[in-house]
Amino acid sequence: MNEISVTQNFLTNSQLIKDLINCTDISSEDIVIDIGAGKGILSRELAKVCKKVISVEYDGALYEELKKNLNSVGNIELKNESILEMSLPESNYKVFSNIPFNITSRIINKLILGKSRPESAYLVVQKEAAQRFMGEGEGYLVSTLIKPYYYLRIIHEFQPTDFNPSPGVDVVMLAMTKRPEPLIKDQDRELYDDFVAYVCIQQKPSLKVRLNKLFTYEQFKHLYKNGGFSHDITIKNLDINVWISLFSSFKKYVPENKKSLVKGSYAKYKRTLEKAPLGSRTKIR
């Protein structure tokens, strides 16, 4: 059995799934991906309300059951693939999934931080992971990368008995809906990602120290006086609007030779993520 299947806890209540779908923006015109579809309980309910479901299951044995259960449903496309290797739709799509907990970060990195991003994503995840993606606790790096493009919120808290087998952790549904207008333009995205990663992966106590190779003392003084934050603030206390302001100043005022210092920082972060033990991947700042 592969690493994906052994960490999944499957929802069993069709009425609960219907109620959850009703809390989303999924409509009859949508293409929806169900990641880690298992035996197909989510895909079956999704197929009743959307145009097409792409039901993805990597585990061979589960995929055979999925085919048996859903082959007769005309608007479901079955895929026996890993979502991490699968090509995502180029046109608009949405995601509604109970994803494997041990690859949550890798899935969200592909969906939300990749090139082909969904209009919205509704994911069953560990509550601790959801809070990190929302910027609580240790998740400020990935949260700061996501928030210019998406609103994040928890829309449901599950009971252990909603699953088989019952999970030993708190589980929620995390909703990520695309902003009407992103806070970062597409042409600035790579530089923004590198800037955020450069600042976050440094193990230094304050924002000022993390930025001292980019901004002069006078520049940083101007930043905190006009940005509404204290000179000794730590990065976990920055909201997304301050990050956007910092990046705008970095882009406008920092000379090219200093901008080169951040180049490749996001790629470095991703390499760190890939090497980390599966259970710790959502903890990387």
UniProtKB/TrEMBL annotation:
Keyword Magnesium on entry: no
Keyword RNA-binding (UniProt): yes
Gene3D superfamilies from the UniProt entry: Ribosomal RNA adenine dimethylase-like, domain 2, Vaccinia Virus protein VP39
Protein name: 23S ribosomal RNA methyltransferase Erm
Assigned protein family: Belongs to the class I-like SAM-binding methyltransferase superfamily. rRNA adenine N(6)-methyltransferase family.
Alphabetized UniProt keyword annotations: Methyltransferase, RNA-binding, S-adenosyl-L-methionine, Transferase
Molecular function GO terms recorded: RNA binding; rRNA (adenine-N6,N6-)-dimethyltransferase activity
Residue span(s) of domain Ribosomal RNA adenine methylase transferase N-terminal: 16-180
PANTHER family found in the cross-reference section: DIMETHYLADENOSINE TRANSFERASE, DIMETHYLADENOSINE TRANSFERASE-RELATED
